[in-house]
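Standup, Tuesday
Yesterday: got the pipeline producing structure tokens again.
Today: sanity-check two examples.
Blockers: none.

Example 1:
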Amino acid sequence: MERQRFHLSGGRDRNVTEEARPGEDEFRVDIERIRFSPFFSRLASVTQVIPQAGSGTVIHNRLTHSLKVSAVARSIAITLNNANEATRETVNRLGGCDPVVVQAAAAAHDLGHPPFGHLGEKELDRVSRQVLRLDDGFEGNAQTFRILTALDSCEATARGLNLTRAIRAAVLKYPWERGEWSGDQTASAARMPRGVGNEVDEGAMKFSAYATEVDEMADVLSVFPAIGRYQQTLECSVMDVADDIAYAVHDLDDFYRSNVLQYTAVSAELGRWLRDCAELASLDSAELDRRRPGHALEAIRRHIREKDPWIVSEEAFRASVERVNRDLVEGLLGVPYDGGLEADRAVTGFTRRWIDRLQASIVVDPDPHVRSGHVRLSQEAWHDVVVLKFVHSRFVLERSDLAVYQRGQTRIIASLVEGFHEWLLDPEEATRIPRRLVDSVEAATQEYSDLYARNPEALGEEGAAGIARRGRARAVVDYIASFTDAQAMSVNALITGASDEPWEAGRGL
């Protein structure tokens, strides 16, 4: 098969050599390891965008989202392998695009997300840096790589799933560590990789490896010599684009079915901008008032023009607003969801139409911009995703009722971190600490000890003195990040003394 030529120069290697299984492909073994992982199963009870509570089965969770990303990624990979000769040659030169590798990466890409969605991720990062004094804090993508390489286990090793290099590389959406960008104020956001962010005085906003996994990140990327620095492997690019497509389209499905997304507000915003875009463009940024229809969309237009001039087009942006207004607002949202067959067919048709459209808009770029990747959306489709994501953000994520709920969730994350960390520091309670947390402390402390032996400078001025502190801190973060939403709430009730069901709520600690 054509696919078998890919990754013959190291991409199929594992850290621990395993006996070959007759008739089984190495990558197929890996994807099954990921799918059978308890970290993967846990995603069924972790928030994707909005909480499932009270919404029945219509809302995606992290597991269903990951399965759909996997399906979209596989479709893109197959399309690339059946493309014209020039595209196939480029794909081969960049290291190949195995459909099973991109499926595995898609299945794994959200393993590191903590309870309560992106807000939980942000709060866990804040408390891990400010309270626990972990320099590289918490980041969901770095946590995913850590799960695959250190926290999960398999029959070959107690530390990590022993996956092939190609699949480990394919989850590295942001192939750098946090501190790699620390203090770099010389470049604007438009000249730095997507995900680094604007405020780099404390390092990159998004990154794919903590200090303890940086060497492994460098090792897996070393088998892709045609991939430039700060660029994803081609298979990772496919997974990343598939994630964007699934998020932009499938989550709209959620918002419509749950009646969170309302016609009147979305129609007013897009319609006003389309009618008065010239007038809005003439305003100073200080004059933009997001409470007034059209102003928030104008702010997004300016934002992408500043950050992504390499692809931004005024004409393409307007065309995308018109397309989304016509198909989503006037088409789908124009008929409120009532749970009937006609409404179900309408939302299914909308989803299928847009998935097909975006999947058909894939570009393979042999020399991508620093803010792009080797596989990306066409200019037209890129603007479509920008507008669809704007609808998510403006009319779902910024809702005050959701904000109230999320603010309560952030308090739970902070409470858990502080509670378990204080417990670890109490010598009189050492024998009663949950065994899983004790084991995690020992393992993380050993990781920092090994890191110090390899590279003392990696731990900064504290050096050896900080090993035990860092081990405790990282173990607490690993422990809490592995909770489901419900488990985080019930365990917080336990540790704050608010629970009246200690035996039930404490199971699995």
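Example 2:
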Amino acid sequence: MAEPFFNEMYDASGLRAPYRMLEGWHRNMPAEFRAIKQAEAEDLFRRYGITFAVYGEGGDPDRLIPFDMFPRVFAADEWRRLERGIKQRARALNAFLSDVYDRGEIIRAGRIPADLVYRNEAYEIAVAGFRPPLGVFSHIVGIDLVRTGADQFYVLEDNCRTPSGVSYMLENREVMMRMFPHLFQENRVAPVDGYAGLLKRTLASVAPAKCDRDPCVVLLTPGHFNSAYYEHSFLADLMGIELVEGQDLFVDGDFCWMRTTEGPKKVDVIYRRIDDAFLDPLCFRPESTLGVPGLMNVYRSGGVTICSAPGAGVADDKAIYTYVPEMIRFYLGEAPILENVPTWQCAKPDELKYVQENLAELVVKEVHGSGGYGMLVGPKSDKATIATFAAKLAANPSNYIAQPTLALSTCPTFVNEGIAPRHVDLRPYCLVGRDVELVPGGLTRVALTDGSLVVNSSQGGGVKDTWVIAEE
């Protein structure tokens, strides 16, 4: 009987072309050697400090993310299509943000309901009427993709605020190159190590008009207790910029300044890795100690650029997600290259009724949820869990959307017995500034538990290196 999921390495005719270079590699690898290499990989990750934390749990707050050594491979033509679709989507999302914080033409045209935007908790009235440099609101867009067939990809969700995980994309490659250098010598694997340079160039390209010299770019972190702190320090180091906390910055006059041992230094661009609510206690949450008092006044007066912009989160709301294909048609006049997953909005009574009647077959997600939390995977849940979730849904239907359970593709993954298919997704990182760019690859997350569809590291998932075979 045929496997119900698309296997990215083997299809009905046998071994798929992108994986030919790996067939002999994994078949000729003794189990003892594989165990040695797996231990070497874990040692490298620990030495590099590549860890993550799960809030609210006891035990080790800095744990290693499971790493699978079997890479995921895309052919050059597969990647070309994905790249076009990702860039198209990033441009449309930014056009939407620029529009809804200005005239709201897409709402006036009746293409998106006004309430969905203006009553959205991620919509920041503090930036209404403000146009950031180059009109870019979301400078780093993480597009989560799933595959269901040889030519079928779906966008699962958009991440327009502070998408995480790019450090794993870079370090997965570094570890694989150190452990299996011959694979890269023998095959044309497109490099990803230019990401930091592209990111810095993107950030510098959106410096405010008041900047009259080489821009001073900093990365603003909540601090070492944050689950992604390793990534913050890693990226700052790669870009050669300062890693700062809120207490390292202050506002004086029309500008934001950084405290240094040589005196104050003017800051032009802030790559922020903290949420909107904590950016400025004078504008958002007054109890926040993570941000910079008065920062929003400087931002709105053109003294500093914040990347991604406050308010960008309204574009990655899971209810707004359903309208992204319409954004592409409205703003770009193009047909969407990448499809959305069919989605039911539980705020709509008729769609809510369908979802309630079919909970056991659907995936239901919180509109603002992330990390695999606050969701129901109906086919993998027992009756009691479904009943509990049904009560939450009935109490606050507008907080949820629902989608069918997709037959996610599988990728070969090392397990105790050898290799086995495991479900995967992909998060490429699209950079938007003066240009729209992305490196050939992304973060492949893998559901290590047999049969599981949840790939989030906080829910037991792991990561793989993602290869794009370069053009001849």
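Quick observation on example 2: The CA atoms of residues 257 and 266 lie 4 Å apart. DSSP finds 13 helices and 25 strands in the chain.
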